[in-house]
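Slide 14.
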Amino acid sequence: MDANDLARAAVGRDRQRQQVLANILRILDRADASTDRTQVAIELAVVQIRKLITGLPDGLLRERAWRALKPQVLPVLERMSLAVGRDLVLEAALMTPEQARWAAGYLQAGMAGDAPGAAALRRATTGENNPFAPRTVEAFPGQAFTAADLGRVGSSPELLGAMQARVPPEVLQQVQGMRVMGGTLQQWFGSSVVLQDGATGRFVRGQGLGGQASDAMGVPRFAQFSFKSIDRHVRAGFLAGNTTEEIAQNLIADEIRGQMRLGQSAVALKSNARAIARTGLAHLSEQVHQQQWAAMDAAAPGTIRQWRWDASNDSRTCPSCSALDRRTVSERSELPGIPYHVQCRCQCLPLTATALELERTEGQGRSTGVVLTNEKPPPQGPKEPRAAYLDRLHREGWAQSKRAGPSGERYHWRRVEWQGGGSTADFLGQVANGRGLGVDPVTRALTLQEYFGTGPAGAKRAAVFTRLVQGGSDPQQALQDLMRGRGNQRRFVPAADLAKQWPEWAEAIEAVGPVRSVRQQRQIDRGKPMGKPRRGY
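Slide 15: predicted structure.
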């Protein structure tokens, strides 16, 4: 490769890294959007169940009466499960061609310094051997629907089922291969969650495809999990001596002007739905990527030389995935399947000869990571449309998904670039040293605290990691020192054991508290309360 080819390859490599992180955020956003749309179905279910709970008698017969309600509660949860599942199927159908286009673009970017190879890949991308080749900008020409259409349909299982007729058969077949913790869509949401051969979207208790019993496979797993969650909170209320009304408030705390505030049990239902959606879409995207890359490699043999595990470089990367980050092998089968665990965001990426040659001659160049901050750019004036604002944030590296901080503040993920090897340990080492990221000390501290477990425990582990790295330890070794266990069971060292493992720092570790944002510190300085801490902090 001459200098011009290397320059083009370097540009392609940087584009690949940006594409990887952007795609991870896109998958999360799709999963979260599906879950948010089905909140109506969850609310309808918990309203019906709350009415059943409020009818329970007081006294010793209350627990027996609750057990007798199970046959009435399960059909409600099955209908909710079907709505959640069918919405997820349609979201997955929208995502499938999008992920195929992404996989094709990623591999083409890896051939930026090899003009003949790139031309062969372009032919492979549009060839007949690739059923998921990009077609047009629209997802399904002639049968297109969008996420906005799903929002208008609402959470009706019947309307969502009827909408599946607009999905091309090859895409629907790919969606049916989606797995969550080893379970199929039918096992999670019911045998009629995916409709075929002209079946209607009508929900009838006990009937599914072709009139067969929908519970031939048993009660859907999501309905089972939902019932167990509600049952656990109800029985806890019995043991605590709560009134029936107090137990019912675990489902819906209150209703103000038509807006429901979900109780603890209902929030758990939505959290479970979100975890299932994120895990399922991660599995689907991996299947689409591998099928796309296999077709392209078959059309242009020798394109893919090696495979590399890529864990998201941010504070949410778990210890299990951190141990695999940047591992490079010759065959895809030598690495674990994706998702590696529930809500896993890792990807297994192909390496071309161009990419390997560039690494050999120039090193790994600039890498991409994500930091946690509580500030983001405001809209450009009051008239900037929300869609344009979110699109601009996405281009600038800001994640649309947000999380509530320990005092109710809103925190945001922002993509940053840095010079280094690209592994999670290297990125955390850069954060700890505070070099080359262009972020303030509070953002660095929040990022490390979030990665190492949040709250006081995360802050203490982050302090130990920072001392190790700043003392000259290799970031990868420092990260390993803070872990226990093997495989996907790796966990951080408990906070209580840190002082035993590093007795010379015992006093300093004990004095470490959770990191506060700039706004929180200002509130404390002014004598104002920070608000009720979020659970887990």
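Speaker note: The mean pLDDT is 76.
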